[in-house]
UniProtKB/TrEMBL annotation:
Major localisation: cytoplasm
Any Gene Ontology biological process: coenzyme A biosynthetic process
Protein's organism: Mesonia hippocampi
Keyword presence, Cytoplasm: yes
Annotated GO MF terms: ATP binding; dephospho-CoA kinase activity
Family indicated by similarity: Belongs to the CoaE family.
SUPFAM superfamilies on file: P-loop containing nucleoside triphosphate hydrolases
Protein name: Dephospho-CoA kinase
Length: 194
């Protein structure tokens, strides 16, 4: 079975593309969602969070205190790296178990920060979804009801497309949805024929 990574900057349309693959029967692992769920449920992660950030890292209900954690780690790169080192191995293990249960020719691993997290090694192929920055900003402003500056702030933590294009095997230009659908169908055919 092949593992196909799916990535792209904020507002590029990863989720939109993932839905198109899912409609074709491809299992999708949305890494950010799974990591969030695992942080809530894994006692192993929670214990390590308290070790790293103190008792306040958990709420009285024993779930991660996200605003507290975010405020701590986003101003301290070293802490962010250490947090990633706690969460990643658990997600990796969960992903491997999930992959083994799938019965298709390939699965998709979706992550906004696939390259930034060095997750390309686990993928046989990588698809990068792109769209012009102005388009992406407009989409996210509309989708999330945020300002241009807020979107640009989030973009700062991601690599730019030029860096990612060098490492991607396939690029889906997501501007017109019909064209995107055609690109997805073509790639799906390619992956099935591998
Ligand atoms: N080709 C398109 N034409 C018009 N709107 C689009 C197109 N592709 C995506 N959108 C819309 O743009 C917004 C962002 O798309 P989507 O959520 O798929 O991006 P994403 O890359 O997953 O974003 P994020 O990284 O923020 O999760 C959504 O509201 C989506 O419906």
């Amino acid at each position: 079975m092949y593992i196909v990574g799916l990535t792209g900057g904020i507002g590029s349309g990863k989720s939109t593309v993932a839905k198109m693959f899912r409609a074709l029967g491809v299992p999708i692992y949305i890494s950010d969602e799974e990591a969030k769920k695992l942080m809530d449920s894994s006692e192993e992660i929670k214990q390590q969070l308290v070790k790293l950030l103190g008792e306040k890292a958990l709420t009285p209900k024993n779930i991660p205190n996200r605003p507290f954690i975010a405020q701590k780690v986003f101003s301290d790169k070293n802490l962010l790296e250490r947090l990633n080192k706690i969460v990643h191995p658990v997600v990796e293990k969960h992903f491997s178990i999930w992959v083994e249960k799938q019965k298709t020719a390939y699965v998709i691993y979706e992550s906004a920060i696939l390259f930034e997290n060095n997750a390309q090694n686990k993928c046989n192929y990588i698809i990068l979804v792109t769209a012009p920055a102005e388009t992406r900003i407009k989409r996210v402003m509309e989708r999330d009801g945020v300002t241009k500056a807020q979107v640009e702030e989030r973009m700062k933590n991601q690599w730019d497309d030029k860096q990612k294009q060098k490492l991607a095997d396939f690029i889906i230009e997501n501007i017109n949805l019909k064209q995107t659908q055609l690109q997805v169908e073509k790639l799906h055919g390619n992956f099935l024929a591998l």
